[in-house]
Amino acid sequence: MAEWVTIGSASTVPEGEVMSFGAGSRQVAIANVEGDLHAFDDVCTHQQCSLAEGDLDGTTIECPCHGSQFDVTTGEAVHGPAVDPVDVFQSKVEDDGLKVLVNDE
Questions:
Q1: C-alpha distances in Å from residue 20, one per residue of 1, 5, 62, 73, 81
Q2: What's the CA gap between 78 and 27, in Å, rounded?
Q3: Whole-structure pTM value
Q4: Bridge partners (DSSP) listed for residue 57
Q5: What superfamily in CATH does domain 2-94 come from?
Q6: pLDDT, averaged in runs of 10, over the chain (105 residues)
């Protein structure tokens, strides 16, 4: 069952940066793209590297291990070697608390 989980303070993710947070049993990456926060699975679908350690260029995150690229708004793999998308999550800010809607499997 999906539930809203507070993962930290929205102000801790500077514009143009990506940070990783624990959300139940999952690691969720938050990208700040021009003030909009986008939540997605922090695990690359190619070889399970942390995407939050990669480079963000606009809405594209590049995995630091093998260069796979994903759209942080849709999760779509836009450049291989990864072909499978990453999960994306709804997010919201309440009183600077950053919340994501996750299915804690």
A1: 22, 14, 15, 16, 22
A2: 21
A3: 0.92
A4: 60
A5: Rieske [2Fe-2S] iron-sulphur domain (2.102.10.10)
A6: 89 95 91 95 94 96 96 96 96 93 75
